[in-house]
What we know:
Blueprint: H1 7-32, H2 38-48, H3 59-96, E1 103-106, H4 116-119, E2 121-131, E3 134-137
Antiparallel strand pairs: 1-2, 2-3
Amino acid sequence: CIQSETVFDVLLNVLGVGFVSDLDDLVFRLGMLGYFGGPMKKVTVDISHCDFVRIKIDDKGCFVRRLKKSLHRIVTYSCLGVVLWFFYLFSEGQIAGRYTVQSIHVEISDDSIGLSSALSGSYVATESDLFNRRLIYK
Length: 138
């Protein structure tokens, strides 16, 4: 992962990664030529001749894999549906006012704030006055 503040730093980082990659290739080639001893030459030659073969799966394995993917999707979408349903229920309850506080008591005793005595007191929600579906406290 390359993280930089400026474009110049990104370019320097990319150049550094390229330089290290070239050094790695050079050391590998020197190892294949035997400059680091016989055991290193054998290992590098073996690595260079390594082939990655994809394992073939018969029809039964393919069916099982598809079944697992389908079950995974069904479970994932079911969980998503349950979460969205609860979100809908809670948001409807919030809009209906089931989770609201009906009264708030505020007491500011610090006299450094100019209007602290004017802000202190009890505030009660008025159900008739709403602002963007939110209660207004008076």
